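Question (not urgent): is this output format expected?
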Amino acid sequence: MKKQLISLGILLIASGSILATQASAQIKKVDDIKKSLETSNKDTIAWTYGGVLNAGINEGFLHNWAAGGELASLTVNGIFHGHLDRLHHRNVWSNNLDLNYGLTYAYSTGFLPHKTDDRIDFTSKYGIRYDSTKNIFFTALFNMKTQFSKGYNYSDTNWQHTSTSNIFSPAYYTTAIGMEYRRGSEVSIFLSPIAGRLITATKFYTSQSEKGAFGIPQNKTSFYQLGAYFSGRYLVNLSKKATYKTRIDLYTDYLAKDTRVNDTVVKKDNPANISVLFDNFLSYKISKYLNLTVGLTFVYDNNNPYIKTPTSTSGANANKEIPGNNIGWTQVNQVFTLGLEYKF
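Got this back:
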């Protein structure tokens, strides 16, 4: 009986070891499949996902500092890049979400928060592979861009009363049908000769100027464009610690034409005025959780807001937000963050 119990115990231990080994192998196999799908388009049924969250805080304090400087300051940045993909044989449904937000607080401004970054960018694509042996897809795309909170021109003396934008003011919605070259989640080149773009904003911004705002006519809340759209994305691991991600979006409006008020051209426009978004993101892993990120975004768009300079900050207009100065066609945003990183 004792020998039987010992034999049974040995058998159970051996069985457990075999099951554990099989489970470990299965997990490894799933991980290997997921990793291979990130860089290829295999004929399979699977969900793949991934993302990175960066959060950084920079603080400074001076006391009797001979060289001068800001007495006290605090900057907080948050960046999120994520994707969720569904592969079902020849069909691919991919979703990308980019979120950026940053605030700085300084003693000289009474620690009133000033935005340094603000962005919501979501893209969803559904593609059908043209040939089972090639990475060409017939693809339908939807993209939405907006921001989290109000934007201000801090160069104005009374910037609190000069809101230049807000959440969904503007918001850009793009729908397109075209061809895409896709290699896993690393490379995507999409071209559409037929793409519609809807721009929306509240009348608060569009009613202040005869030019309107964000490309929307005066006193209107939306404007529709029909044109061509190109979007390219590339992700590369430069080393075990460094990752570079870039993206370029181009859009041209076939219907673009000069805006006239009383036979006077108030805004020149034509299909050659191509809207450009050029995004760059470099990430370097210093330790397990500490990370260094640098972001650079370049935007060129002649539909940027045109808004009047405040003429009064007293009397009836003292507590009203009055749209501020024209911010121009070209925008550049550079962000440097040293902080915590979480990948999944």
